[in-house]
Amino acid sequence: MRPCVDGQYVRPDWVQRNAELERDLLPVPPVDFLRHPSIAFQMFVNERLLPHELPYVRSRLTDERLLAEPSVGEPPTVPLPDGGIRTSSNTVHQLFHLLRYQEATGRRIDDAATIVEWGGGFGALMRLIVAMHSGEPTCVIFDTPIFSAVQPARTRRPPAPQPDPAGPHRQGTTAAGPARARDQLSALAVTEGEVWGVRR
Question: What letter does residue 186 receive in the DSSP assignment?
Answer without folding.
Answer: G
